[in-house]
Amino acid sequence: MTIALPMASLQDDATPVKPRARLSLTRKQKAAIVVRVLLGDGADLKLSDMPEDLQAQLTLQMGSMTHIDHDTLAAVVSEFSEELEAIGLSFTGGVAGALSLLDGKISPKAVAKLRKDAGVRPGDPWARISGLGDDRLLPVLENESVEVAAVVLSKLDVTKAATLLGKLPGERARRITYAVSMTRAVTPDAVERIGHSLAEQIDAQPDLAFSDGPVERVGAILNYSASATREDVLQGLDETDASFAEQVRKAIFTFANIPERIDPRDVPKIVKNINPAQLTCALAGAMQMQQAEAVEFILSNMSKRMAEQLREEMKELGQVKTVDAEDAMTAIVTSIREMEQNAEILLIVDDDED
């Protein structure tokens, strides 16, 4: 049984009541008696939910009392029972309690504003921080001081910490790792303050309209654009912002990128997932569009019999319309992307992209 004591029973010290009792008792004294009785019966009292000063007052009050006669005890317990029965609905915990009650029912942005306006801190900031994705935690490790980063790394699950450490530049990772060895003297209060500060920073970040960055969005659009359109756009980006254009090029994955991004051992898996007619059309069209390297890469990493059969079919197909060839190549690229998302294959990443 879990019982929360009415807070007023410890705050009002000027209401002596004497029903059948021989002594006039303050509400603090009566609260101490009730707590003593409940603890003696094995009740689970959430005394830690009360403010610390009230916890201290209750402890001191209990320490100053000695013996209570049966009539006094009966009167106090009876009054306490009547007070409990008279309560129809209880709102406890102030704004903090209301936020806990409404957790998940109102937006995180509204929660953050209410906490800030009321000066209420979340209970355990590290529980929330630990649940963030790597994309949210990595900037913290990159931009905060190495001392703060070391505390964050120490509070995370070891698997998550190891993954994040592996994504940091070598020098930064070494400095943070060394700083972890210096955290022995860090106090719990300091760790809590760091957690609250980071949680507040995270809450203060504005909501973003797009989950992906501009590089990823432009790259995804150009992936499905006609090759002429794609090259024209990239040429324009080169003239406007060469750095952005280079990042977009790295984000793009087209039929021509197959030799540099696909593991040769994955070619049979990819071919198996593609409509044979589309594959023949794509290979024939790619040869016409000066993408012989991608064609030879695919043909050389499958069985000789199948490769020879495809070469014969490409000859029989003859000239392929550009629009048909691009549609077929796009279908192959889409299939490869889907296989990557389903973890059936893993695209090779250029070391220069890190």
Counting structural domains, the number is: 4
Structural class: mainly alpha
| CA radius of gyration | 34 Å
Oligomer state equals single chain
Strand order of the largest sheet: 1-2
Distance between the termini: 56 Å
CATH level 1 class label of the largest domain: Mainly Alpha
Mean pLDDT: 82
Biggest sheet layout: 2 strands, parallel
Principal-axes geometry comes out as: elongated
Pick out the low-confidence regions. Answer: 13-22
Total helical elements: 21
Quote the CATH topology of the largest domain: Annexin V, domain 1
Q: State the CATH superfamily name of the largest domain.
A: Flagellar motor switch protein FliG, alpha-alpha superhelical domain
Count of individual beta strands: 2
Q: Could you give the order of the helices and strands? A: EHHEHHHHHHHHHHHHHHHHHHH
Which second-level CATH architecture of the largest domain applies? Orthogonal Bundle
What's the SSE blueprint?
Elements: E1 2-3, H1 8-11, H2 27-40, E2 44-45, H3 52-64, H4 70-86, H5 94-101, H6 108-118, H7 125-130, H8 134-143, H9 146-155, H10 158-167, H11 170-180, H12 188-204, H13 214-223, H14 227-240, H15 242-251, H16 258-261, H17 267-272, H18 276-288, H19 292-300, H20 304-317, H21 322-341
Parallel strand pairs: 1-2
Helix pairs in contact: 2-3, 8-10, 9-11, 13-15, 14-15, 18-20, 18-21
